[in-house]
Amino acid sequence: MTFTLTLKCPERAGIVHAVTTFLVGQGCDIVEHQQFDDDVRGSLFLRTSFRCAEKTTVDDLTRSFAPVAGDFAMEFEFSDGTPPRILVMVSKFGHCLNDLLFRWRAGSLGADIAVVVSNHEDLRPMAEAAGVPFVHVPVTPETKPEAEQRLLDLVGEYEADLVVLARYMQVLSDALCRKLEGRAINIHHSFLPGFKGAKPYHQAYDRGVKYVGATAHYVTPDLDEGPIIEQEVQRVDHTYSPRELVTVGRDAEALALSRAVRWHCERRVLLNGNSTVVFR
Questions:
Q1: If you ran DSSP here, which 8-state letter would residue 36 be given?
Q2: Does the reported pTM lie above 0.90?
């Protein structure tokens, strides 16, 4: 079995030596190693995948590594090859959900889709055709607290490790964002310049944009301003109609979101303040 160690700690000499010495002592063989020294913030980030000759578990490795981590003030986590379980939230737009379902069934998503939750019924046929449970949780201003509690209940019921907002057209409360910190990913259109409100692609057309893009980021109480995981940009020109811009934009959204989900589930994304370190 392949395990992965991810860690963050203050930058100093001897960190990599300590990690590799520990792994050798456990009879492990490193199969992939990446690190990043953030000289500005004085931090080191590391991701190492390895195989062990002897039978072991995440708990065993965590206990054995604790003294090493303590010496270097490491924030660390071991994981095995078990695919994380994700809860996907949608509204009426199905392009991101369709892409995630395709990649999941093809075995390239790096996760298992446990359930689809929506405030509308429109995408039930898509989810159920893929064999995924679909739960309708309607939301109104009056019922929003109850709806968000229902969402948290579903996260526990389906043992979801990650929540993916695949064009879910409801703003989550600050309290819910804090409860899902570091384990909820959102996708939104991003333009240069940025267009907000209704029909952003029509606004982009009116301004003659030259690039259409999308941003996948972690959810925070600051709307659409969480740590960025991935961005996708496509060049366009004056020949693109609003409808064609929508098509290009949706392709960018689906691609950026699927990459972000896969990298998160492969433990390639480490939070670095308001930013991220992404080991590809």
A1: E
A2: yes
